[in-house]
């Protein structure tokens, strides 16, 4: 993953990239819901962390739900 200031590490997303790509629903399909989850962990996870492990080792979590359509 990409190393950031302060020793933070940014992991790849579901597109295999370390940067944010934004929502992209198919044109004409109305609004789609998107959930964003952020985990602050007390361990450095491997490339394929199970969500249950992240929840188990989380120091803090945040969830944001948003709608987007085009």
How many angstroms does the end-to-end distance come to? 31 Å
Residue stretches low in confidence (pLDDT < 50, at least 5 long) are none
Question: What fraction of the residues are assigned to beta strands by DSSP?
Answer: 35-45%
| Oligomeric category | single chain
Structural class: mainly beta
Q: What is the number of strand segments? A: 4
The portion of residues assigned to helices is: 10-25%
How many strands, what sense, and barrel or not for the largest sheet? 2 strands, antiparallel
SSE order, one letter for each helix or strand: EEEHE
The number of helices is 1
Q: In what order do the strands lie side by side in the largest sheet?
A: 1-2
Shape, per Cα inertia axes = globular
Radius of gyration: 14 Å
The whole-number mean of residue pLDDT values reads 79
Task: Characterise the protein shown here.
This protein is mainly beta and 70 residues long. 10% of the residues lie in helices and 36% in strands. It is built from one helix and four strands. A two-stranded antiparallel sheet has the order 1-2. A two-stranded antiparallel sheet has the order 3-4. The N and C termini lie far apart (31 Å). The model has no long low-confidence stretch (mean pLDDT 79).
């Amino acid at each position: 993953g990409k190393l950031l200031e302060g020793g933070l590490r940014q992991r790849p997303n579901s597109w295999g990239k370390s940067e944010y790509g934004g929502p992209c629903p198919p044109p004409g399909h109305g609004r789609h819901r998107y959930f964003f989850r952020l985990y602050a962990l007390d361990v450095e996870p491997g490339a394929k962390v199970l969500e249950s492990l992240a929840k188990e080792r989380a120091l803090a979590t945040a969830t944001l739900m948003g709608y987007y359509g085009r």
